[in-house]
Amino acid sequence: MKQGEITYRFETPVYSGNILYVNLIARYSCVNNCLFCSKPETYGKENIYEQKAGANLFLSKSPSVETVIALIDKKIQKKDTEIAFIGLGEPLMYLPKVIKIIKKIKEKYDIKTRVDTNGLVKCMYKDPVKKLVDAGLDEIRISLNAITKKEYDILCRPRFENAFENLISFVKECANSKIYTYVSFVTGFEHEKVKKRTEEEYSKFAESLGIKKENMILRKYVKGIFKK
């Protein structure tokens, strides 16, 4: 089995090629099992994210802080504007490691840092927002995907019983912090037990959590591309 990439980059019509992505996630691990997600359960299955990235992101184990920093030092370019923790799975499962890496990045480089997350880190760690703020995280993008606990549990199938409550608390804390905060929703994925929501409903819910309308992202589900 070929070891995947720890750092990678790709360009889309939305995102420039001036972003260095960091993958810390062992074996595509996540604390959700979303119905609409393209994340494969095992290595080698086709998925839209690795297709777009042009990279194999399967890691047999999460890399050390020292390994990640050495790769950032090697791969970073003068034109880069951002270092983003993403991968295929949930990066904040490794919150202590993320904190250490962000601190080291901020010591060495004048560059924006970002994390894309499902927002369930409060189910695993105490005071994550304070730790991320203290580390110097600039931006966070949190996948909400539902506006009620019932809909969230059906769509995202979280490992934790109190997932939605902790998610909402995390979003509010981020919105009230120095971290520039976005939330996102997958649209166009239909389920018989979940009410179809409008953009206005998503927007009102996001605003009730302290998120500005312009900081709401709608991600369109495309049938036949996302695979489970």
Description:
The chain is of the alpha/beta class. The chain has a single domain, classed as Aldolase class I (TIM Barrel). 31% of the residues lie in helices and 15% in strands. It has 7 helices and 7 strands. Strands 1-2-3-4-5-6-7 form a 7-stranded mixed beta sheet.
How does the helix and strand content classify structurally?
alpha/beta
What Rg do the Cα atoms give?
17 Å
Ends distance: 21 Å
Task: List the strand order in the largest sheet.
Answer: 1-2-3-4-5-6-7
Share of β-strand residues: 5-15%
Shape: globular
Low-confidence residue ranges: 224-228
CATH fold topology: TIM Barrel
Pattern of helices and strands: EEHHEHEHEHHEHE
On the 0 to 100 scale, the average pLDDT is: 91
Q: Considering the protein shown, what is the CATH homologous superfamily?
A: Aldolase class I
Most strands sheet: 7 strands, mixed
CATH architecture: Alpha-Beta Barrel
Tally of individual helices: 7
CATH class: Alpha Beta
Short overview:
The chain has 228 residues and is α/β, with parallel strands linked by helices. It is 31% helix and 15% strand. The chain has helices spanning 48-53, 65-75, 95-108, 128-135, 149-156, 163-175, 199-208; strands at residues 7-8, 19-22, 82-85, 112-117, 139-143, 180-187, 216-220.
Features:
228 residues; alpha/beta; TIM Barrel; 7 helices; disordered C terminus
